[in-house]
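Input structure tokens:
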């Protein structure tokens, strides 16, 4: 099964970065402004993208300041059965984030689109951590002729 993989160096501590991945204020600062949930293992986080739809993630694993794993509970059909992981490691004044959107059923044009969008949103996370201002949906960079 194909995976989307990205690596980003963020000038922030793993604790600060982990908070941006596990709190509703943090998540809404870089992915989508309409984010709701409890942020505990076994709970769902609801990510809304206005007329473009929604995605629900089940929090499968949390290791403080080191690891976050989500399972896709609902969202695009191509995401069914996939998982998203964020692994954090300290390197001098930076956190190295290794991101995986894994277990896609097949490589497709939509996977290419999602890979680019994940890169954009991870850059939004980096900006959010380093400057206090990310580019979450609906203020994200649009990459397609359909406005997403």
């Amino acid at each position: 099964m194909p995976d989307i993989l990205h690596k980003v160096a963020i000038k922030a501590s793993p604790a600060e970065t982990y908070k941006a991945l596990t709190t509703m204020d943090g998540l809404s600062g870089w992915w989508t402004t309409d984010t709701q949930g409890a942020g505990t293992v076994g709970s769902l986080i609801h990510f809304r993208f206005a007329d473009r739809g929604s995605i629900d993630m089940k929090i499968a694993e949390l290791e403080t300041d080191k690891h976050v794993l989500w399972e896709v509970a609902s969202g695009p059909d191509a995401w069914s059965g996939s998982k998203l992981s964020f692994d954090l490691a300290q390197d001098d004044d930076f956190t190295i984030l290794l991101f995986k959107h894994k277990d896609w059923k097949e490589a497709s044009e939509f996977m290419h689109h999602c890979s680019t969008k994940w890169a954009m949103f991870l850059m939004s996370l980096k900006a959010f951590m380093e400057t206090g201002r990310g580019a979450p949906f609906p203020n994200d960079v649009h990459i397609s002729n359909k406005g997403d």
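The helical segments are 14-22, 24-28, 109-131. Residues 109-131 form the longest helix (23 residues).
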